[in-house]
Amino acid sequence: MKNDTAGESKDHPHHKSMWISHEISGVDFWSEKGGTVKNESVETKFAGDPANVFRATSNWIKKSDGKTLLTDQTTYWFGGDRSSRWINCLIQYLASHGEFEFDDTKEGLFAIRTHPDLRLTAKPKSGVKQVFGKAINSEGVTGKSIWGKQAKWLLYYGEIDGKPMSVAMYDHPTNLRHPTTWHARDYGLVTANPFGLHHFLGKPKGSGTFKVPSGKSLELRYGVEFFEGIATPALIEQKYKVFAGKRLTSLTAKRP
């Protein structure tokens, strides 16, 4: 789809707000060239009736033959206070149709594309002439150097339409290969990716591959928090500790 919105970037049309994608068993779901993710259902009622939560179930389908490679169930919790709004996610990757593997590639996994104003570098050819963003991770690495580094959290901050704003992403300590490596770009792509070890850490090709046997699953937990104002690294560390203490377990749905 062509993007004619003034001031918005025109690159990477497959970057859609906040999303989950990767290359699976050689099928490119990230750029949407080889596979598509089709939502099957959304649940909103659970035992104990917790507020501000829903769970989406989706099938990952290979375009060439229509074969389903896996199913994901992703639960989203929402909350906030006077200065921030947050979304916590539990992603359950289910080997519902046989064994599959996450490929060793930088293109994935849990991602958000920030407002163009929070880019670190301008790109007039893509429609972005001015930027106001900065970035830092939990290890104190700043700017473009955050790409490929391991960190517990990552923070982008700056001004959006002249107003100070910040966006942080958190990697839960129970996750595979925590602290995760990050596919975080200067154009506002913020992505937690524990699988692209060849690209990020210079390890031999295939080092980051992870197989999920038939009938088994992999659970990953992430958080995103949006702040009104400039959030400091010290504040994000405090917020991260709160997130890290949350269990984020699967809920039992109420059945009609």
Describe the structure.
- With 256 residues, this protein is mainly β.
- It has one domain (18-244).
- Helices cover 7% and strands 39% of the residues.
- It is built from two helices and 15 strands.
- The strands form four sheets. Strands 4-5-6-7-15-12-11-10 form an eight-stranded antiparallel sheet, with helices on one face.
- The N and C termini lie far apart (39 Å).
The strand order across the widest sheet is 4-5-6-7-15-12-11-10
What is the CA-atom radius of gyration, in angstroms? 18 Å
Shape: globular
Q: Biggest sheet, in brief? A: 8 strands, antiparallel
Tell me the quaternary state. Answer: single chain
Average residue-wise pLDDT: 92
How are the SSEs ordered, and which strands pair?
Layout: E1 18-21, E2 23-24, E3 27-28, E4 35-43, E5 53-62, E6 68-80, E7 84-94, E8 100-102, E9 109-113, E10 134-137, E11 153-160, E12 163-171, E13 189-192, H1 197-201, E14 210-212, E15 217-228, H2 233-244
